[in-house]
């Protein structure tokens, strides 16, 4: 896909009619780093925990990250019923990180191993998707009330919020009482952990096991290029044919690329973390958009959740306005991340890797002012 196609698919919009709403997701929050992240004239970039360590061999580091995320995905389910909803949320986040890791070394693992492990994690996450979706609906109605509350009469959409909370609680309770669901999720993750722990990490293992992770950019370059290229195409598709599904597909690619940037922090921390922050912001905007779309679909199929037809119409109008704003903000940031072709990004990151390797081997005398 060339630059002309990207330009054709993603054009800047004209002014939008926003009424009395503050432009809270344009020039300010759309920027890479929020004002609260700034300290005087210096930008504070917190190191992500999901990253390779300086000097850590690629295979060893990726194996460690995969096992750590699986342990994190399991641990929350032992924290009691009150923490069940959060456990589901954190488990799904960990699984997304693992799937991003798998995509990064997809061509190093081989297609057979990649497809098996990716499908295993995908299907495990689906076991608890209903619980998460129920919580998302509550978050979406809360966002609408928080954003537009000053314009609404007191009590507007309050009953809808209460009904969605009751629905979420029923779904969580049913899931906790299911004798098979959580044990199956935990068992799947534990079985995956055992496989990951046995991964041969050295490149010399390729001849014996048919796989191994080289400590070389060639082990991650093709996967990185594929993730970026897929996201670039999904962005074009989303704005060419806007729908909840096309934006959701783009969001998934954004999150994969974000986690890959976190993994590769040692290559150039300032750049990797900056890109990860931007990608996280895009994913958050697109996540809110998806949540609102899911809320509208839910209420359309279950009008009893918002029984007042006037409130239902109002909620739909507000959600659509918010979705339009979120998509515009996502476009601004997306054009920055996907400004270059995947091939160019591959060459640039290859140079970053070489510079990192040079820095590892160099013995330079510290110079102080």
On the 0-100 scale, what is the average pLDDT? 86
CATH topology: CHAD domain
**Which percent bin holds the helix content?**
55-70%
Query: What is the name of the CATH architecture?
Result: Alpha solenoid
Describe the structure.
The chain is mainly α and 369 residues long. It has one domain: CHAD domain (Alpha solenoid). Helix content is 67%, strand content 1%. It has 14 helices and 2 strands, in the order H-E-E-H-H-H-H-H-H-H-H-H-H-H-H-H. The chain has a two-stranded antiparallel sheet with strand order 1-2. The radius of gyration is 22 Å and the shape is globular. Residues 7-40 have low confidence and may be disordered.
Which features characterize this protein?
CHAD domain; 67% helix; 2 strands; 369 residues
Brief synopsis:
This protein is mostly helical and 369 residues long. Helix content is 67%, strand content 1%.
Tell me the layout of helices and strands.
Layout: H1 3-9, E1 38-39, E2 42-43, H2 58-75, H3 84-104, H4 106-109, H5 111-126, H6 129-148, H7 158-177, H8 181-197, H9 206-209, H10 221-240, H11 244-263, H12 269-301, H13 309-337, H14 342-361
Antiparallel strand pairs: 1-2
